[in-house]
């Protein structure tokens, strides 16, 4: 895998935190990324929208060093994904994590906070996400939505410079969804680069600065929400730039 170095010319927009060019990933005969290119900038929410199986999670796995692309270039802060220079600056909220199981949210977040040099205060993070109400309940006994909130807290506690949120509000009720939007907005305003995937067009319209539509492993459209919704809502744009999910071979 090749990696870009910094080439900052002082132009607007600010330098990319994530720079991906022509990424290709195949799992056996199945192509997950088919020449994907995308830039993520600091202080912006970049939303990656695509049908089921389009390659969104695979892209996040590449960015966090969990999957190595077969071809293309990918750099975070000018370094290789998963490298020692990058890892302390990255937060990841995966779609699912069963790993915590017996641990209660307060214990977990206190533990995670000790892994970082300058963590967010655990209490205020728990307050922002409404975690106090179930802070002492083992993770495995939490509802799916409560687990999502703990996963999000885990992604943010280390004050990352870039955070990858894989469907952060899937399964959340309206009130909790709004708390998450509010927190993500504040994280963005603090200068963090946020990449999030969602199937909720309303969420993307409300929260995202930049939108990238991915279909069958490649970006079919990108722009700001304003640019993309000039002639219609995001759902119509999404439908016009994606294809129905492919049946298994
Ligand atoms: N570990 C793997 N082994 C084999 N195939 C995989 C693996 N991970 C992903 N794929 C395949 O790669 C393609 C892209 O999957 P990916 O999970 O990235 O899609 P996605 O856009 O995140 O989908 P969703 O919206 O359903 O979460 C799919 O066809 C999927 O079946």
From TrEMBL:
GO-annotated cellular components: plasma membrane
Domain of life: Bacteria
GO terms of biological process kind: response to antibiotic
GO molecular function, one term: ATP hydrolysis activity
Gene3D superfamilies xrefs: P-loop containing nucleotide triphosphate hydrolases
Main location: membrane
ABC transporter domain sequence ranges: 18-241
InterPro entries in the record: AAA+_ATPase, ABC_transporter-like_ATP-bd, ABC_transporter-like_CS, ABC_transporter_ATP-binding, P-loop_NTPase
Any matching Pfam family: ABC_tran
Subcellular location: Cell membrane
Keywords: Antibiotic resistance, ATP-binding, Nucleotide-binding, Transport
Membrane topology qualifier: Peripheral membrane protein
SUPFAM superfamilies in alphabetical order: P-loop containing nucleoside triphosphate hydrolases
Name the record gives this protein: ABC transporter ATP-binding protein
Protein source organism: Tessaracoccus antarcticus
Organism classification: Bacteria, Bacillati, Actinomycetota, Actinomycetes, Propionibacteriales
